[in-house]
Amino acid sequence: MKHTICCIQIDIAFGDPAENKRRVSHAMEEAIKKEAPDFLILPELWNTGYDLTRLETIADEEGKDSKVFLSELAKKNSVNLIAGSIAKKSGHKVTNTMLIFDREGTLVHEYSKLHLFKLMNEHHYLTAGKESGLFTLDGLNCAGFICYDIRFPEWMREHASNGAEVLFVAAEWPLPRLQHWRSLLIARAIENQAFIVACNRSGSDPHNQFAGHSLVIDPWGNVIAEAGEGEEVLRAELDLSEIAAIRKQIPVFEDRRPEFYQSFVKRD
């Protein structure tokens, strides 16, 4: 079975949720002009960007505004929407939360970023999530991750071991570490024998230049599609039959010995 996906690689207005909603809506219109894809994915923190010091003011209260907006877009276009992530305020806490909607506009899952990136001071302004990134859309087993998560192979393997076949990544990955972005994502695809669909942002904010280069990678580690640095709608087709064929060819999941992975005990 084949599925068409689109990564919506946009520049994000620093600390301006209203403008960012306009940009997302416009980019989605562009993505479906010729043919509506099966899946659309947005970048990380698309509603606010990395305006962390003002999140207390500009984060979306319980994600209510974003959920209504995104649900309507998904339903109107009959598309599964992996809606990147938003700054979501709950009481005095703010999380970096991925929202996932099916074709009917139903919210099927929320995943809050597990690994906070101290280099960009996320731990001072955000609360880490605790839940799994696993979800199902169109009968397809998927998992969602956010940016820094890709540096933790054990976290992504946990999801692949529990059935995930397509790993979606939303990010605001900086340009100076573009080589890491590409290398890590290719490695995650190879070791998990899964498709990677990774949507990064483009442009810059007052402190960072972002890399763009959204990627779609097959379970063998081949880059199927790659964007440049600028704003772009990246389209690709996933042939899901490749997953079973590759996992049969090199049966990594059958050969795992997880009983030895939890804690290494020194043996004589």
TrEMBL record:
InterPro entries: C-N_Hydrolase (IPR003010), C-N_Hydrolase_sf (IPR036526). CDD domains: nitrilase_5. Keywords: Hydrolase. GO terms for molecular function: hydrolase activity. The keyword Nuclease does not apply. Pfam families: CN_hydrolase. Residues 1-240 form the CN hydrolase domain. The keyword Hydrolase applies. Belongs to the carbon-nitrogen hydrolase superfamily. NIT1/NIT2 family. This is Carbon-nitrogen family hydrolase.
